[in-house]
Amino acid sequence: TSSQSSENKPCIHLMGLRRSGKSSIAKVVFHKMSPNETLFLESTNKIVKDDISNSSFVRFQIWDFPGQVNFFDAAFDAESIFKGCGALIFVIDAQDDYTTALECLHDTVARAYKINPGIKFEVFIHKVDGLSDDQKIETQRDVHQRANDNLIDDGLENVQLSFYLTSIYDHSIFEAFSKVVQKLIPQLSALENLLNIFISNSGIEKAFLFDVVSKIYIATDSSPVDMLSYELCCDMIDVVIDISCIYGAEEDIDASTFDSQSSSLIKLNNATVLYLKEVNRCLALVCILRENSFERQGLIDYNFHIFQQAIHQVFDLRNKPTNPGPTTTTS
Ligand code: GDP
């Protein structure tokens, strides 16, 4: 069934008109391409199944559709494509006239919803780096209103659309992707609870659980996320990966140089410490704390060890629903 397949392997589809930025997003988020290099990407003219499950904790595919899919084309098997879809990201170029894009969004959502009402519909209002703050707010309001009006006109008022302002030139695209991926993780609330327990027992201010390859955070504690902290943690991952690639022994960048021994500490000049600990081959925990809290590093490391075991339990339990829930003790 669709719910089973999306639970085993949550699948994200990336759709939108030609030149809206789909390939660029996939390359920047999952293949570490720098935003400027995307200027030379060839436009997509086929469905690209980009399976990144080997290197990433999050197992999903990017289906990069060519713009303006003709749903009545026999070659487009909507049934099988949308059945296995967990989230559908529709990319709209905010620097262009988006009337056609809104029509295409509507057709796509209407079609997909009828086949699989469980799909999460996510609208990326993209390339907002060219817009002023006022224009961003106005564009988001306008897209939101027109997209929802179209759905209501069609009797589809139950369909929920989520909207994000994104650009590949800053961290907004990673932030948006994080939110999309989190909705597809059944264990999210367990992870958040574990993070809450871990930080409150360790004197830590904020902690993010990262998918290292993509810099998507798959969970964080329940205190509010501030973009600056998130960017700091992303930058730290880049630094650690770069150092691992330069000095690590193995050749396989994604898998081996970042291993079970990896940890890293950065002290900033405002009495703040960034502390990175690897959780498993794909996941890392990045914490932000005051320098004086770090004096108790032994306690933090001990609590981290317990946290790490609990994480393994949470994901192992997945296929054994009869087991009791994980218990943790922290001192
Ligand atoms: P696709 O046909 O939807 O796959 O679109 P592409 O990924 O080929 O992107 C089309 C153009 O948009 C490229 O020249 C990209 O450099 C540019 N682009 C993509 N994302 C952004 C963005 O966030 N901001 C800006 N300013 N340009 C972008």
From TrEMBL:
Places the protein is found: Cytoplasm; Lysosome membrane; Nucleus
Keyword list, A-Z: Cytoplasm, GTP-binding, Hydrolase, Lysosome, Membrane, Nucleotide-binding, Nucleus
GO BP, sorted A to Z: cellular response to amino acid starvation; negative regulation of autophagy; positive regulation of TORC1 signaling; response to amino acid
Location (main, coarse): cytoplasm
MF (Gene Ontology): enzyme binding; GDP binding; GTP binding; GTPase activity; molecular adaptor activity; protein dimerization activity
Catalytic activity line of the entry: GTP + H2O = GDP + phosphate + H(+)
Low complexity compositional bias, start-end: 321-330
A Gene Ontology cellular-component term: Gtr1-Gtr2 GTPase complex
Family of this protein: Belongs to the GTR/RAG GTP-binding protein family.
Protein name: Ras-related GTP-binding protein C
Lineage: Eukaryota, Metazoa, Spiralia, Lophotrochozoa, Annelida
Region of the whole protein represented: 52 to 382 of 401
